[in-house]
Each structure stands twice: as C-alpha cells, then as structure tokens.
Amino acid sequence: MGERLIELRDIKKSYGNVFAVGGVSMHVDRGEVVGLLGDNGAGKSTLIKILAGAVRPSEGEILVRGKVVPGWSPAKSRDAGIETVFQDRALAVQQTIVRNIFMGREITTALGFLDVAKERSEAERLMREIGFTSKVFSPDSIVGQLSGGERQGVAIARAIYNKADLIILDEPTTALSLTETEKVFRFVRTVRESGRSILFIGHNIHHVFDIAERFIVLDRGRVALEITKEEAKSAEHPSGPNPLEAILAERAARRQGARA
Amino acid sequence: MSSLSQPNNASIQVSPLRKFVLGNRASLGTLAVFVVMMLIFFAFAPGIFSRWPIYNSVLLTLPVALFLVVPLVFIVTVGEIDLSFPATMGFSAWIFALVVQAGYDPFLGIIGAVIAGMSLGFGVGAIVVYAGLSSLVATLGMNFLLRGLIMIPTEGKSISLLGLNETLAYKLLSSSVGGFPIQIVWALLFVIVSIFLYNRHRFGVRVRVVGDNPDSAAQMGIDTRRVRVATFVFMGLGSALAGVFSTMINFTWWPSSGDAYLLPTLAAVFVGGTPTWGGVGTVAGGAIGAVIVSFIQTGIVAGGLSGFYVQFFNGLIIILSLLGHRWNQVRYR
Fold first, then answer.
1. Would you call B150 helix, strand, or coil by DSSP?
2. Minimum CA–CA partner of A144 in chain B
3. Cα distance from B202 to chain A (closest Cα, Å)?
C-alpha cells in the first residue's frame, strides 16, 4: 500500500447526548479505492461532512500524510487535497460542463475576463483523462442535459482540476441504471490508476464490492467491519457471489442470535 | 484511444449559427416579440412609424431604462430581487443635483451620485444577504425608507438645473448630435460591457453559478454572500447613472425621481427572457425588453389609440412574452 493519505483517529461527533459518530478510526492510502458502507443512520454522512470540514468532530484527531492537522475546517480539508462530491448538490445544472469544472477556479486573462479557449481545451483534457468523452455532448453542453453517471463525471473532472488527492463520492451510483453505474466505475478506475484515492460511499453492497479494494462498514456510529477484498474472498464462509454480503449477513444473524 | 486520433467528433460539431440560436434563444425570442410588435404598429400607423421623431422620443428616455434593466438581470440571476432601485436612483440623482446646484462641475456630481448609488446598493445588499432577509420584502421596505429620507429634508421640492446645458458634461453625455440623442450611445456601451461582464467575466460566471446552486458554489470556495452583495452594488451603480441621465434630460430633479421606473423595469427583465428561478438570464434580452416596454406606450398613443389602452397592451405584451419564454425555455434540474 502507498503513502497514508488521511487518517482519522477515534473521531466522535455528538449532537447533545446522541453520538452520530462514536469513535471511528480509519484511513485512506494513496491510490486506493475504499468503500464505506452502512445503513441510513450508521454515521456515513456525518463522517463525510467531517472529512469535508463542514462538521467539526467533538473528539479525535485527523492526520494528513501522517501529521495531525489542528483546527480542521473546509479550507484545511481542501488544502489537504480532499474533494467531496455530494449526492445531489454538487453541480450547477443550468450551466455548461466547462462552467462546472472551473467553478470558483475560473481561468482568466487580464481584468478577470475568461480565457474561453484555454478553459475549453483544459476541460477536454480533463474529460479525456477520466474517460469521460462522448459523441453526444461537448464541454459546452448544459449539465442538466447529462445523465446521472455523466454528471458524476463532471464532478470528478472538477475534482481532478482542483488537484484532489482524495475524492469522496457520496452515493454516486444511487438511483443509477446499470450502464450508468458502469460509467461511474470507469471514471473511478481511471482516477485510481492516476494515483489518486477514492472513498466510495454507498448503501448498495454490490456496487461497493465491485469497485472498492477495501471496505469499512459502519454500524450505529462505529466501525463494524474493516476488510480487504482479498480477505473477504478468502474468508471461511464465502457463500454466494458476494462474500462481503455473506459475511455481513452471518454477523447480523449471529447478533440476532445473541440477542434472542 | 481511437477517439483521440480523430481531431473532432463529427456529431458534436454543430453549425455556428445553430449554436448561436440555441445559446441565445431567450433574447432572440424577445427580439422576435419586438419585431412583431413593431410590424403591428407599422400596419396601424405607417405615417408615424416611418418617420424619425417617434424613435427620437423613445431614444431619449430609453437610456434611463437600460441603466436599470441590465443590473436587475444580474440580481434576478443570482436569485434575488430589488425593489429599492427607484429610491436609490432618486437619491443618487439628488446628490448629483445638489452638487451641480452648488456650482460644482457636473462630473463631480456624477462621481458623487455613483458613490451614493453604490453605497446604498451595498447597504441594501448587506441587509438582505448578511441578515438573511427576503429580498422582496426588505428591498420594498428600503424603497419606502430611502424615498422618505429624500422627502423629509426636501419637503417634496424639486431642484431645477437650468445652467446644465452649458457644461461639458452635458454636451458629452446628454446632448443631441444631428437630431440623435447621444445618451443612447452611453447606454448601449453600458449594455455591451455588461453583456461581456455577464457571459465572459468571472463576476458574471459566479453570479450565474451562485444563482444556480449556492451550496455547490460555496463548496467550491466561492463567497456566495459577497457575490450576492456585489449584484446589489452593481444595481446601485446602474441606478445612479439612470438618475444622472434622467436629471440631465429634464434639467430638473424631482423628489419622486425614479418611482415611475419600478414596474416597467421589472417587466422588461422578464419580458426579456430572464426566468424568475435564477442561475440563467440574458442581458441582451433584458435590454430588448426595455425597448419593447418603452415602445408600447409611445406606439399605442402614436398609433391613434387613446392613452387608456396603454395599460391593457402593456399587460398583454408581458403575458404573451412570458408564455413565449415558458414554451421556449427548459428548466434543468
């Protein structure tokens, strides 16, 4: 495994007496795709918001490339090279692909006027880099005309332009068809090959199992399971086509048994 | 990658004309409304509409409307509304009139008016944005408040500036060259610069992005509140220029200066094809909208109908334009 990009140590977040995140330690290394799984209310979204700096953890520390970063904030998250693509509020859908890629980081000439040619060629380069090309749209197409998978492509292209080392995808394949999901997977694989890391959040275990190499399963604000794909495959009870699903089902059954 | 070797994907190559039409459908639609309206006017009163004076009278007042419509397009695009610009216009023009009345150069008065307009715009914007007020209600309140601040000290008295036509500022900005009112040139310059500002400048881009998806813009590091306040400052600048030109046309400043522009300007923005939901808009369309609104009144009266018809046709044009834009525009979500 590569360099340790980001590490959370015993992160807790409480709202009043309720712990949304109750002591999570996890890490993402350079060039890996980590799948973060969990049911609704398991603490996924709080954890993403903490990584993005939007929510301040009540306890615990965050390390970037091995160094503790005090006073974690949205700005420090961005400086650390983390870019979060939130489920449905990531893009300005009435604007073009170009406008979305350069949102907040426009390429301008003198006096703040846009360098249209440079933005267009840079957008084309970024889109090619992640395999996000098509005959039916161009960088000047309106994002609202694109499919769900293609919209993820716009957000990923933007993250790469912003020099993100870790791209957090929040439920990128939820409500997408199989072909659309396959598109997103293709972007993710290309991004990983370029040495960047991806934290892939989902509640569809099959999607996440297909794309990630290591899995972190959250349950009620804690890490219930952390396992690599190899470990999952070679586990003792790999019944069915998806070993991770089998392991989790077995655990759930055991827990239910203990309770009964 | 095989697609790399092809210099251009054939099917994304649309003809430049088609691209232009698709990219400017709102403003072109507005232009079509204008052309149809003018043809109707022509049919009813060919004698009047084939001669210059009617255009001259429109060109005289149109500049004031243009200075107001253009920045209002920015405000609507960013997702706000401003109903306080008439009072800002009156207030800035008041500053201009006071400076000129005191015997200073009108250019100094213009600087004073612009500073006043932009400061008021900043104040209105800051109240709306930083206090998180509804811009519809807050700017309505500010309009009354500012107008009151004009009325109290002036006691409703106007200021006449008869010496104005001797000055260089007047000759440069507001005189007539060969029967052609020169202020329209300045107003058009303002429109053209604003079109570039809206479409090709970082400011316009951010106005659109913030109006489209403020969460996303904020996440990308854009200070959305600053952008929104900036549109109000720009509105203040336009209001000040409108106030100055209006005062120079009439050689008089009235305490009610600007009031009559509230509804026609709002109508012009939406007749022009800028939708109410923010994120998109058209400056050129807004400008054409202002031309339409200016022509309705003159055209109807000149066309031989009584002035009582003006409001009816005003409303008809607004509703028909909105229906046209509704059909012409898609709202992407």
1. helix
2. B332
3. 6
For chain B, which domains are there?
29-37+47-325 (1.10.3470)
A178: amino acid identity, one letter: L
For A15, counting Cβ atoms within 10 Å of its Cβ (0-12 exposed, 13-18 middle, 19+ buried), the class is exposed
pLDDT at A239: 58
Spatial separation of the C-alpha atoms in residues A139 and B200, rounded to whole Å? 16
Helix (H) or strand (E) holding A198: strand A197-202
Give the other-Cβ count within 10 Å of A93's Cβ: 21
Task: Confirm if A136 and A130 have CB atoms less than 8 A apart.
Answer: no
Q: Which residues of A touch B212 (CB under 8 A)?
A: 92-95
Identify all chain A residues contacting B208, using CB atoms and an 8 Å cutoff: 92, 94-95, 99
| Most confident of the ranges A29-33, A173-177, A236-240 | A29-33
The answer to whether the beta carbons of residues B296 and B93 sit under 8 Å apart is: no
Q: Residue B199: which of A236, A112, A182 has the closest Cα?
A: A112
At residue A29, φ and ψ (nearest 5 deg) are -95, 165
Q: Among candidates B129, B322, B117, B122, which has minimal Cα distance to B237? A: B117
* Cα–Cα separations (whole angstroms), residue A94 to A103, A147, B117, B315: 13, 14, 32, 29
Q: Which residue has the tokens 């525009």?
A: B329
> For chain A, which domains are there?
4-259 (3.40.50.300)
A209 contacts A173 by C-beta, under 8 angstroms: no
Mean pLDDT lowest among A30-39, A138-147, B294-303: B294-303
DSSP-assigned states of every residue in B169-213: HHHHHT-EETTEETHHHHHHHHHHHHHHHHHHBHHHHHHHHHHH-
- What does the pLDDT look like over B37-70, one tens digit per residue? 888 888 888 888 888 888 888 888 899 999 999 9
Rounded to two decimals, the ipTM of the complex is 0.87
Percent of chain B scored above 90 by pLDDT?
Answer: 62
Distance CA A120, CA A107 (A): 10
Q: What is the pTM of this model?
A: 0.90
- Contact yes or no for A159/A84 (Cβ under 8 A): no
Residue A117 forms contact with B (CB below 8 Å) = no
> CA angle B56-B110-B251, nearest 5°?
45
